[in-house]
Amino acid sequence: MSGKFIVDLTTLNKYLGKLYFLNKELRVEKIDWTDVQYELTRTRNSINNIKDEDILIESKEISRKTGNPLALCDTMPIHNTRATTVTTPDDQGHQIKEFIAELNTELKKKLNDEFNVRFDSKNIDILRAIDALNAGSDTYLVLSELDVLLNTFSCLNIDRSILELKIERAEVDYCLGLPINPKSIPNLTTLIAVKNTISTSTASVERAFSSMNRICTKLRSTLRPERLSDLLCISLNRDVVDFLDLDKVVTAWGNMRNRWAKV
C-alpha cells in the first residue's frame, strides 16, 4: 500500500462523509426540494472546510496502523553513493503535503462545479414543478408550482387559465368517482408527457453503450450498423422480447420472399 493510495483513501472517505446527508435527502421516496437546497448549502460549506492538515493527520494514522510508510516514493538511504538524487524524510513529507493540497483543491473545484450544474436554482424549480405532477406529492397539481414548467416550455402554448379550469374539473370528477378522460384535459396531459420525457439520469444511455460493447466484440467487428441497431433494440427491450412467440417470428421470416427484409 503506497503513501499515495493512503492519501487517496483518506480524502475519499472524508468527502463521502460530507456527501452522506445530501445523498440521503435525494434517496427518499418523496423529495422535499427545500430540504435538498438546505442540505446542499450545508454540504458545500462542509466540503469547503475540509483542511489539508486534517487529511494529513488521518493519513498518518492509517499509515501507523497498517505499517505502511506515508511516502510517494521509497526512501533511499543517504549513504547510497550510486543514487543521483536522494529523497530524505523531510522531502517526502513536503511532497505529501503538496500532493494533499493539490488533490484537495481539485476535488473541491470539481464538486462545486458539479453542484452548480446539477443543482442550479432553475433546475431545482423545474424538479419541484415536475414533482407537482406526481400523484403522491403534497403539491400535486398545485398551479403555482406548475408555473415554472409553463414558462420553461412556453413553446407548448398552454393557457394557464384554461389549465386551471381543467384541473378543477378533473378534481371534481375524481371526488365524485367519475372516470377522467385524458382527452378532456389535453393541457395537463401534455405537461405529464413532458415530465415523462425528461431524463432523471444517464443510466439508460450508459446501459445502451454497455450493451453495444457486449454485442460488438472483436469477433463481431464487421457487423453492419443496421444489424447492430437491431440487436441493440432487442437487447434493450428484452422484457418485451421475452413475451414474443419465436416460432411465429421464424415462420413469418421464412414466408418472406425477400430474406433481407426486416422482420
UniProtKB/TrEMBL annotation:
Cross-referenced SUPFAM superfamilies: Ribonuclease H-like
InterPro entries registered for this protein in UniProt: HATC_C_dom, RNaseH-like_sf
Domain HAT C-terminal dimerisation: 183-235
Transmembrane parts of this sequence: none
One Pfam match: Dimer_Tnp_hAT
Molecular function GO labels: protein dimerization activity
Protein name (record): Zinc finger MYM-type 1-like
Organism: Paramuricea clavata (Red gorgonian)
